[in-house]
Amino acid sequence: MTHYALTQSVALAADLEAKGFLGTVGKIAAATVIFFIAVGLIVGLLLGFFIGRSVGRKQGTRS
C-alpha cells in the first residue's frame, strides 16, 4: 500500500507540474496572440487613415 501511495503522490506532483507549465505556456500564447491582434488593428487604422487621405474625397461639389 505504501508503494501505491508513493506512486500516486509522484504522479499527482508530475500532473500538477505539467498543468502549471501548460498554463504558463497558454498564458504566453494568449498574450502573443492579443499583442499581434492589437498591432494589426493599429497598423490597419494607420493604413486606412493614410490611404483615405491620399485618395481623398471631392467635397462641396454636387451635381
Overview of the molecule:
The protein has 63 residues and is mainly α. 86% of the residues lie in helices and 0% in strands. It is built from one helix and no strands. It has one helix at residues 2-55. The mean pLDDT is 83.
Topology of this protein?
Layout: H1 2-55
Q: How many separate helices? A: 1
**Unreliable runs, pLDDT <50, ≥5 residues?**
none
What is the radius of gyration computed over CA atoms, rounded to a whole number of angstroms? 27 Å
Secondary-structure element series: H
Class by helix and strand content? mainly alpha
- The level of helicity is over 70%
Give the CA-based shape. Answer: rod-shaped
Question: Percent of residues in beta strands?
Answer: under 5%
The largest β sheet comes out as:
none
Would you report the number of β strands?
0
| Overall pLDDT confidence | 83
Key phrases:
63 residues; rod-shaped; transmembrane helix; transmembrane; membrane
Short description:
This protein is an all-alpha fold. It has one helix and no strands.
